């Protein structure tokens, strides 16, 4: 680790400030919020309905027409203001890799589709505006929970009110979520993640929607969240930006600053980062 990593310094300070990478950040923030609200509103119209559920890839990876329709709505809203920007999205034929140069949008129309189809209200629509591979604004709307999270260069907010990570520094008071999903042939890693958390911290929660978990860390509800997997950008980029703007820290398994193509994701309130990082490393017995 670098000296900055060992000191627990805010990893957001390691890259140029968002305002230095785009001269239209305020507009991008407004469009991110409008697009997330529009997609979430459409998805919410079909929530707890008899909408058909399909599988894609693995048998436990589900999708609905609401996912596709919400994504189209998000993209249409973005295109009204930024018609030429790249879009990285989970569904349909959108690109899957965040470009390292230029402007792009990273979107997830329904993060937590498993919850959505089981009538559990823990799901969200997430939109991140990215410039040169780094987020400059984000919005996450969880309509069934009544929460909207936004992040701009000015900070992080829930329903318009400023939020910040918790100040818990004692692991015995900490709560951590094992996020993302371990496939059936990696359930030993899932089990180690759970054991690593409950043996180090006060308790464990699993919400089943990374783009709800991440802003929950940002707002102080959890002290951290971990995975050893390389997460999809649509599951993470918006929420990571919210955490950083709320004063938290996000790294990979090596303790280096997390970015959209990192392996592993370790997010914390900062004060407990070394303990949260140790739990993440234990998943692969790296600790």
From TrEMBL:
CDD domains the record matches: IMPase_like
Reactions this protein catalyses: beta-D-fructose 1,6-bisphosphate + H2O = beta-D-fructose 6-phosphate + phosphate
PROSITE patterns linked: IMP_1
Record-listed E.C. numbers: 3.1.3.11
GO-annotated molecular function: fructose 1,6-bisphosphate 1-phosphatase activity; inositol monophosphate 1-phosphatase activity; metal ion binding
Residues annotated to bind Mg(2+) 2: 90
Binding site for Mg(2+) 1: 108, 110-111, 235
GO process annotations (BP): inositol metabolic process; signal transduction
Cofactor: Mg(2+)
Keyword annotations of the record: Carbohydrate metabolism, Hydrolase, Magnesium, Metal-binding
Amino acid composition bias (Acidic residues), ranges on this chain: 1-13
Protein family: Belongs to the inositol monophosphatase superfamily. FBPase class 4 family.
Name this protein carries in UniProt: fructose-bisphosphatase
Annotated source species: Halorubrum tebenquichense DSM 14210
């Amino acid at each position: 680790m670098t000296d900055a990593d060992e000191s627990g310094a805010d990893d957001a300070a390691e890259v140029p400030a968002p305002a230095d990478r785009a001269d239209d950040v305020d507009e991008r923030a407004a469009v991110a919020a409008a697009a997330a609200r529009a997609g979430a509103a459409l998805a919410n119209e079909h929530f707890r309905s008899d909408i058909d559920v399909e599988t894609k890839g693995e048998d436990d990876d589900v999708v609905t027409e609401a996912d596709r329709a919400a994504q189209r709505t998000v993209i249409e809203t973005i295109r009204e203001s930024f018609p030429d920007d790249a879009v990285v999205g989970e569904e349909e034929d959108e690109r899957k890799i965040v470009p390292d140069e230029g402007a792009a949008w990273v979107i997830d129309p329904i993060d937590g589709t498993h919850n959505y189809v089981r009538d559990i209200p823990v799901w969200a629509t997430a939109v991140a505006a990215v410039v040169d591979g780094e987020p400059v604004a984000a919005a996450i709307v969880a309509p069934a929970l009544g929460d909207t999270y936004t992040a701009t260069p000015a900070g992080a907010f829930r329903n318009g009110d400023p939020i910040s990570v918790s100040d818990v520094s004692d692991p015995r008071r900490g709560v951590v979520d094992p996020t993302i999903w371990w496939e059936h042939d990696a359930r030993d890693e899932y089990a180690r993640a759970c054991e690593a958390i409950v043996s180090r911290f006060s308790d464990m929660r699993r919400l089943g929607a990374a783009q709800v978990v991440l802003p929950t860390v940002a707002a102080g509800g959890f002290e951290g969240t971990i995975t050893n997997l390389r997460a999809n950008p649509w599951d993470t980029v918006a929420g990571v930006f919210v955490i950083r703007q709320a004063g938290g820290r996000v790294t990979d398994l090596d303790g280096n600053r997390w970015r959209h193509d990192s392996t592993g994701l370790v997010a914390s309130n900062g004060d407990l980062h070394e303990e949260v990082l140790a739990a993440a490393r234990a998943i692969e017995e790296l600790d």
